[in-house]
Amino acid sequence: MDYPSKIVEEAVRQFSKLPGIGKKTALRLVLSLLKQEDNEVNAFAESVVRLKKDLKYCLRCNNISDDDICGICADGRRSKEIVCVVEDLRDVMAIENTNHYKGVYHVLGGLISPVDGIGPSDIAIDPLLIRLQVEDVKEIIFALAATMEGDTTTFYISKHMKNNDIKITTIARGISVGGELEYADEITLGRSISARIEYKV
Question: Where in the chain does DSSP place strands (E)?
Answer without folding.
Answer: 56-57, 64-65, 82-86, 104-107, 139-142, 167-170, 197-198
